[in-house]
Amino acid sequence: MGRKTMEKDLVKKYEYAWDKYSKEDLEKVFALSERYKKFMSKCKTERECVIELATLAEEKGYKNLEDIIKNNGSLKAGDKVYANNKDKTLALFIIGSEPIEKGMNILGAHVDSPRLDLKQNPLYEDTDLAMFETHYYGGIKKYQWVTLPLAIHGVIAKKDGTVVNVVIGEDDNDPVIGVSDLLIHLSGEQLEKKLGKAIDGEDLNILVGSMPIESKDVKDRVKRNILKLLNEKYDITEEDFVSAELEVVPAGKARDYGLDRSMVMAYGHDDRVCSYTSFEAMMDMENPKKTCVTLLVDKEEIGSVGATGMKSKFFENVVAEIMNLAGDYNELKVRRALNNSKMLSSDVSAAFDPNFPSVMEKKNSAYFGKGLVFNKYTGARGKSGSNDANAEYVAEIRNIMDKHNVSWQTSELGKVDQGGGGTIAYILAEYNMEVIDCGVALHNMHAPWEVASKADIYEAMRGYYAFLVEA
Ligand code: MN
Ligand code: MN
């Protein structure tokens, strides 16, 4: 044998997931994307996601934790249970055959996405037009949200305790609303401004009407006409906006993207692409050794705060309840269960974009079609705010992914000191559990319409399943 043939190839290659697919595999890739697009077209708020996924889980045999507690029930190995926190956070569990104290395998992701929220006193009339005031939620490039067809999704909670569900702008026969932009002919001054200052947050006002009410002897006739329409449809008055959560989001369905249909364009991939694929992986699990958990949280985009954000005690409390129902509760055992757990904390990554190569370091960037992305650390300015997974844990995860032939890659969010971002990983790591960031790479992150690769969506689902089975 010559010298050449004896040499082992020591170089790591990140291959296209596409290259390994059989015809049958490809059918599964595209079938998952069809289910995902359907979910994304329907679910555009954290509430809609949690309610839809809780309903699907019930169809798969998951029982509501509240009902089990109310009926003095108990839990045993193989049982499936979910906890719904205020329709905004969902925690799904399958009880393992091992004591929970030995640790859980946890998939985590978030279901809130950047958007425009209506203010508490949103409706006003300015120069014969009816408008909604908004306060944007999460990090957005404001100039991207003008001149788009927008829809309203959300709830109006009334004093009598009833909650009205609102979806306007998604049905083909629905009207849409939107934020205007200045015509190019008069934009001389605007075009001189820096991109970040061109559209002010306070100028993201939504045009909702232009037709006056019939009675001519009142003020604000256009605004009154809108109130009349809303009263007829939802039986609400202006004061009811005070206790409403109305989210303005891009109107329209998730679509195939690319002439080869290899990608999906949707509103809210961040982070519903990881949420949905984690959920599907969880639904495929039966009778695990370790207790398996999928945790879908709210408020990540504004710092994981509030009762429904990851910093809430909700998850810890639910773990205690579940251990109690499994007949294995004490304070120390709950601490051990959390301490001994392992987690994939999923959130989206930035995929390399040939239009903007200067912000990426090519050797440590994610690419479309190369699979589930692992980020040992995230953060900004010297990894600040990052989790930074332990090397031993990263090695264990590599081994699991390779054992299941999952396509995976590693990345950082852009060049050093170019910017950065955070996730929920560091919050769970406070229990001393092993946590690593991972997820699906996107183009246009936080834009009204984001793009993901269908191969990456499929590999994410496979990677999550492998983790639940093997970790
Ligand atoms: Mn985000
Ligand atoms: Mn995110």
Query: What best-fitting shape do the alpha-carbon axes yield?
Result: globular
Any idea how many domains?
2
CATH class descriptor name of the largest domain: Alpha Beta
Total strand segments: 23
Q: How much of the polypeptide forms β-strand, as a percent range?
A: 15-25%
**Helix content bin:** 25-40%
Average of the residue pLDDT scores: 96
CATH architecture of the largest domain: 3-Layer(aba) Sandwich
The class by helix and strand makeup works out as alpha+beta
Please give the alpha-carbon distance between the first and last residues: 41 Å
Q: Calculate Rg over CA atoms.
A: 24 Å
Structure report:
This protein is of the alpha+beta class and 471 residues long. The protein has two domains: 12-113 and 267-470, 3-Layer(aba) Sandwich (Aminopeptidase); 115-250, Aminopeptidase i, Domain 2 (Roll), CATH 2.30.250.10. Helix content is 28%, strand content 24%. The chain contains twelve helices and 23 strands. The chain has helices spanning 3-6, 23-42, 46-59, 65-70, 188-192, 221-234, 269-283, 314-325, 331-339, 391-403, 425-429, 454-470, and strands spanning 63-64, 80-85, 89-94, 104-110, 115-126, 129-137, 150-157, 163-168, 178-179, 206-209, 244-250, 255-257, 263-266, 291-297, 342-346, 349-350, 372-375, 379-380, 408-410, 420-421, 434-439, 441-443, 450-453. It has a nine-stranded mixed β-sheet with strand order 1-2-3-14-4-15-21-17-19, with helices on both faces. A seven-stranded antiparallel β-sheet has the order 8-7-11-5-6-10-9, covered by helices on one side. Strands 12-13-23-22-16 form a five-stranded mixed β-sheet. Helix 2 (23-42) packs across helix 12 (454-470) and helix 8 (314-325) crosses helix 9. The radius of gyration is 24 Å and the shape is globular. The model has no long low-confidence stretch (mean pLDDT 96). One manganese (II) ion (MN) is lined by residues 270, 301, 446.
